[in-house]
């Protein structure tokens, strides 16, 4: 992160010199703050004409990299959790695993619930 942000800033990627480097805010194309409140009508709907005047929202390099890495790490975490949980549950539920039920001391037939039948 600390290497990528200066590369993006000094390499003029995404228009970074126009926007504040370490800001988490959004900007309009000229670098001033993006005001979402001006885009709304009094009843809370989006004013399309005002949006066409203001334009898209832009972000600085640090904010974009944080969004990218945060999303990537969140996805990786949940995928990794799923892969390893499935493996652990499979090992715990196997019939020859460590939790296969009480030992069959009486030598009788064992039913589905681990109970020994005489």
From TrEMBL:
The chain crosses the membrane at residues 56-79. One of its GO terms (molecular function) is oligopeptide transmembrane transporter activity. The keyword Transmembrane helix applies. It is found in: Membrane. One of its GO terms (cellular component) is membrane. Belongs to the oligopeptide OPT transporter family. This is Uncharacterized protein. It comes from Mycena albidolilacea.
